[in-house]
Fold:
Amino acid sequence: MASILQGVAWDDLAVLIAAFDHRSLNRAARALRIGQSTASRRLARLETDLGARLFDRTPEGLRPTALAIDLLPHARLIEGHMADIARIAAGQETEPEGRVRLAMPDGFATAWLLPRLADFHARWPKVEVDLTIGHAVVDLVRREADVAVRFVRPTAPDLLLKTVGRLQMRGFARPELAKVPVDEMRWIQFDDPEHRFQETRWVDTQVRPRRTMRVSLWNALFAAACEGLGGAVLSPMVAEPAGLVEVGAHLPPPEGRDVYVVVHRAVRHVPRIRVLVEWLQHTARQTFLDP
Structure:
């Protein structure tokens, strides 16, 4: 057993965890920011070191073996220790310098962050920002990102939350659609069968349209509305500059979205992370967010 443990590397265990979580070697590699061939090689090396198979390859994806299931909680403990080591090492930084991984929803990143990010780089030229964009909530405890901008409150006790304001939402469409009754207009919505998003709930309960078009990305939703394919629930910040006009103003407005900046407690004082968090707070409050 000792010889087996001496041969096991943390990078290999990280592939085990990612493959278990994603059930796909390709998705696991993307999550780890490595190539698929590298992930495959590391997993094969781990199976060789252990002398047993960890996953069965099936048409539905990777299926963990009993050994993988037994090893997973121990691998997660090591993952936590490695994250702690990284946080402690990051605390040795004396000035803002290095890379920060920032996670946020795609629409927020495209419409709000990217047009302003040059200002951050001008202020802190030694800090590089890597973006993880999408609706999925990344795990800051497991260091999938350093900072997150979210519309949902975190629940993990080690995460610190800073509320930067509320993003107002309204129904918008091209001017030529403004005279069409809202329930007769096609509405562009997220593919949200569980009604997790308030935009979905507002359209379904207040507008009750006869026709809908569902998309999986905010950028597609915004582009469809700009092309006149239908109405959409958007922030005035992006809708009005694009020439869209408010529709459904006679209806109770959507609730709006509280916007949070979230960071792990252990890295909040790391200079490069601290300056990004402070810049996000200041910039949000100076632009379009209601306090």
